Structures are given as C-alpha cells and as structure tokens.
Amino acid sequence: MIGWTIPPYIGVPVWRTFFEKYTDIYINPITSFISATLISSWFLIPFTSFFLYTFSETQNKKYLESFLLESNKTDIYYKKIVVPNIKGAIYSAFILNFLKAFKDFQVPWLLAEGGAPLSFGITDKGIIGATTNLEVLIYKLFNFESDISQVSSISLLTILIITSVYFLSSKLNSKIKMNISYFSKTLSYIWIFSIIYFFYILLTLAFSNSQSIYLKGSFTLKNFKYILDDGIVKSFSNTLLISIITSILSIILSMYFAYFLLNIKNGENILNFFNFLKIFSGLHIIIFIFYIYSKLRLLNTFTSVILMLVAKNLPFLSLLSYHYFKNFPEDLFLLAKLDNIPKNTFFFKILLPNSFPLVSSLFLLSTLNSFNAFLPPLVFLFDESKYTLSIKLYSYVGAANTHYPLWNLFGAASFATFLILLILTFLLLKISKISYIKYL
C-alpha cells in the first residue's frame, strides 16, 4: 500500500536530491536519461505487481497443490505454468506501462526539466534535453506562449504515435516469449531497499534546518511550523474540497451513465470505446482544454480542475458500474417494468440505495485520483490561495532551474502529505472492505 501512496510530485523531487547530489544529471545526457528511466520504472512497479498478481491468483490452485507434491521449487511452477498462462496479462501490462511512460510529464519535468541538453538540442527556440519527451516539449512551448499551431502539431504527432503503438502492439503479442529468472528476486529486493532509502531521504529533508541538500543541517521540528504559517492548511482544504466534489459528481454521473447504457443495445461496446480513448489523455489534451476554458472564463477556478478530473474518472468508473449493475437480479428490472416504474425513480430509489459496495469503491478510486492530481491544477490555477497540495509542494522546489529550492520545507510538507494520504487510503480501504473493488 505504501507504494500506491507516493505520488510523483513527492517521489520525483525526493529522488532528484539524490541524483543531483551524487551524479552529473544536469550536464550529462546519459545520466539524465538513465535516472529518468529508473525513476519512471520505480513508479510503475506497484501497479504492475498488483495487476499481474491479480491475474496469477486466478490460476487454479489445484495445479499448485499437484506441483508441490512433486517438487517444492515454486520458481519452476511460476516459470513453467503461471507465466505462460498469464502471457496476455503480462503483455497488456507492458503496453499500458509503455503508453504511460511515453506520455509521462511529471518524471522528466520534475526531475531535470527535460534533462541535460543534447549537443543538437540547443536552438534559438529552446533547449531539447535527454528526457525532453513530447509532453515536456508541449509544456515548454505553452509556457513560452508559442504559436498554438506549433503546440497543435506536436499534440497531433503524440496522438498518432500512441495510436500506432496501440494497433501495432496486437501484431507483436503472439511473437513475444515470456520468461522469468532468479534475477527477478534480486530486483524485488532492490525495490524494497529503494523504498526504505526513499523514506530515509524524505525524513532527512523534513527534520533538517538546512534548506540546501549540500549543507548538513541539525534536527529541528520548526519546518512543520513554517509550513503551517505558509498556508499548507489552506492548500489541504482546497485539495479536500476538489476531491470531495469530484468524487460525488464522478459517482453519480458514472453510475447514471452506466445505468443508461445498460438499457440500450451495444452499451458495453460504447463504454469500451470511451475507455479506449483514455490512452490519448495527457498534457497535450489539457493544453487544448486550457484554451477552451480561457474562452469560457473558467481559468483559475476550482470548477476548471473539477470538470477535468470528472471527465478523466468517468470512463473507468462507468465501466465498473456497468458490470456491477449487470450482476443485479434480472427479476428486479423486470418487476420495475411490469409496475411501470420510471427509470429515474428506479435508479434513485432502488438501484442507488442498494449499491453501497459499488459507491464505496468508486469513492476510493475517485478520491485518491483527485487528491493526487498534478497536471490540471498546474495548468489551470494561478493564485497561490487556490493551490492544491501538489502545487504547493511544487512551489517549494520547482523544476531544475529553481535557484533557491526550500528542500527542508518541501520535506516537511511532503512528509505531512504522505501521512494524510496514508490515513486517507487506510480509511477508504476500511470503508470499501466489503465493497466491489476486491472482486476487480
């Protein structure tokens, strides 16, 4: 659970202190690229592990029992039986991780603002670094108020590449051979050690009176007093307000949309199509929405962030709701039709009150997603009084070109935010313990 509760806006700057202090990440393109790749992979491990573990648990336990009668080497069991049977899941995880890394903005930006400059990357329009992907390039052009046609061209290129990768990947699926080795155990131990070392760095920053990572400081608790005086409580209340409103709207809209599609032909296909469109989400889409919001005068409002987060949550939450409603007794729907109960009345009076397991699961997913949002508030909010926790933390250390990062205040604020996320996740999991999410 700890891996799930470390958002990139906390994790990347913490690892940045390590690579900045002990490597030449800002001047060596190779170091920049390797560092960004390692950190990006580090964040993908919890999702991938959970995804593959879920599929491996679906394997018939009788196979394992029969195997253990002949041998106690479970590595061989997973290598010869489990892995070949979840090949599709492994391949799906690979494609999902590839697309997520391809569209990633937070890691390359928060780590080194696009990486060390390449020899051919220094131009009159900006600097292309070793980790300047298309999303970072779009954001740089957006910040420099470049011609919107340039941003549009790069955004279109991003969409075309994602589409090509998605459709070409299906042809490669049957050609890929899956294998595991004892090296995987070593990687597991390395990841566990990295988690421990991560918290060592975070605690060192949080309880040090030195603002610099190069000067050794002494133990202090004053950092927490400083962040309280600096408006961290206001940022927390902003984040909580956005998360709660987003969750309520996401739950009601997704459940109602799923119920509507349940009553029409090809409803599941429509939902699958909307979830397919999620692979195109990213900063390149948010920038276009920024220009739409500017015309509607929604910029610098919580409404702009909430609408974006609801739109992001809606496809997946609707899919979960759709499959949950399909498991309801068919007689219930039939009796409603025989009694001529209006569809809206049936939804709000019967279906919704009997869907607490689903509601609690949707609330868990939506709240955590909204609480950890970084890109929408970064692009849409300008006033410091409206900052969310993610942007407040970002303001302490910024990107790589920030001249006077306040690492001690960032550490204290990050530690407090992590504790809030841990408590929030624990409480939501307790609420949803009897919920539908355990069957996903």
From TrEMBL:
Ranges in coiled-coil conformation: none
Gene Ontology, cellular component aspect: plasma membrane
Annotated GO biological process: transmembrane transport
Localization in the cell: Cell membrane
Signal peptide as annotated in the record: none
Topology term for the membrane: Multi-pass membrane protein
CDD domains tied to this protein: TM_PBP2 (cd06261)
Transmembrane regions listed in the UniProt entry: 33-55, 76-99, 148-168, 189-208, 240-262, 274-293, 305-325, 346-368, 406-429
InterPro entries: BP-dep_ABC_trans_perm (IPR050901), MetI-like (IPR000515), MetI-like_sf (IPR035906)
Residue ranges of every copy of the ABC transmembrane type-1 domain listed in the record: 1-169, 236-428
Keyword tags: Cell membrane, Membrane, Sugar transport, Transmembrane, Transmembrane helix, Transport
Predominant location category: membrane
Pfam family, one: BPD_transp_1
Family of the protein in this entry: Belongs to the binding-protein-dependent transport system permease family. MalFG subfamily.
Entry-linked PANTHER family: MALTOSE TRANSPORT SYSTEM PERMEASE-RELATED (PTHR32243), MALTOSE_MALTODEXTRIN TRANSPORT SYSTEM PERMEASE PROTEIN MALG (PTHR32243:SF50)
Protein name: ABC transporter, permease protein
Source organism per UniProt: Thermosipho africanus (strain TCF52B)
